[in-house]
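Lab manual, section 2.4: Encoding a predicted structure.

Procedure: take the sequence of the chain (82 residues), apply the prediction step described in section 2.3, and record the output as structure tokens. A sample record is shown.
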Amino acid sequence: MLAVHQRLAELYTLSLKRPLAAAERDEQQHCLHVNTVYCWEMARLNNEAMLAAHTKDSQWQQEISAQMLEVRVTGRAAKRQG
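Recorded output:
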């Protein structure tokens, strides 16, 4: 879990108790944007992993696994060479 996911949960919990302040609403929108990018990146990598498995390309699978770990830890994968 990324720190942005924890903050998003905190902001959601706060919103159940009281209206969020303007700065908190802005922060919530930022967290939602980061989460969206994260989800799309993981979906792309999952699709690539499935293709690599179907084509039995073990090197590509290893590269994708490394990228997935990087996304889970940092929120984004490094630019690919190619």
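Check your result against the sample. The chain has a mean pLDDT of 94.
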